[in-house]
Prior knowledge:
Layout: H1 5-22, H2 36-41, H3 56-71, E1 74-75, H4 76-88, H5 97-109, H6 141-153, H7 159-177, H8 183-194, H9 199-207, H10 217-223, H11 240-253, H12 258-266, H13 272-287, H14 294-299, H15 303-323, E2 331-332
Parallel strand pairs: 1-2
Helix pairs in contact: 1-3, 1-13, 1-15, 3-4, 3-15, 4-5, 6-7, 7-8, 7-11, 7-13, 8-9, 10-11, 11-12, 11-13, 12-13
Amino acid sequence: MAPTFSTVAGCLIGCAVGDAMGAPFEGLWSESIPSADLLLAGFHEYHGYPRGQYTDDTQLTLATIESVVARRVIHIPDIARRIAELWRHYSVIGPGGACTAAAERFLATGSHIQMGAAVGQAGNGAAMRTASLGLWFGDNHDAVISAVTEVSQLTHRDSRSIAGGVVIAMAAGALARNRKLNAEAFCAYLADSCRQINPELADLLVQLPLHFESNSAIDFIAHSGQEKPEFDRPIITPFVVPTVLAAIYCLIVHPNSWSDAVTTAIRLGGDVDTLGAIVGAVAGARDGIESIPRHLVETVQNSRSILTLATKYYHVLGDWHNTGEFGGNASQRT
């Protein structure tokens, strides 16, 4: 069954709104971030940009979906080109180091092969842009995993980053189809989707619900995947493992509220534009665009153009789901 327009629009505009909500507070500790009510009241000023300005998290997401809409397939070289164009035109906002290096390699060579950061660089630059791809293949899990792996590798070749991209796409697709999944089943489903890519992240996802009933959940999330914690206090760094675990945590503990899920994510502190973008996108796919405060939808930058893109993506998705043509026919590598 094809996703509804509300699901598709919720995913794309939710990404932008969550990103723009978190952007002014990137890198801050939780106690320095405003209350949930203040976050939801309206966008805060972000480094001289207009209020409601989103960052590279949303820009790369939109570039990916613009490619899918134009090509009507997931065309890996075209996605790479569109991502790199953001750097060619100096239009990218708040870029991460790995994505910048990947774009520069593409601009220098014209090739997406070996474009992504080498193994060992496990940032969240793939996970931040893959949620909307989870709507493309429906419940064809193998196709989602294969295509999102390739899209993730454009910026990150480390298995942790690739697994993170897959988990976020699978989360969006699963919750768009069934928003009533319980914590254990949901985490087990996500763990199964990434176990062949990175068993460590899979194991951590299975363990995540065990920490919900205690005060250890945030410590567990913030310090996961690290031999030695980077900070004494919990904060969500750009490392993909805690980012993904934090996103899934916020979605589970707030199963019925886009606003609560996103504000909880942002108030964890750290890389909160990315975390806001991810949770905003997945919760938007789960709850629909109606769940996102209307004044934020209307005042996020480029709202109308994002909704126009969502409309186009919705129609392309409908065509794919109606024909049933998935798998290899939906992804092109050359």
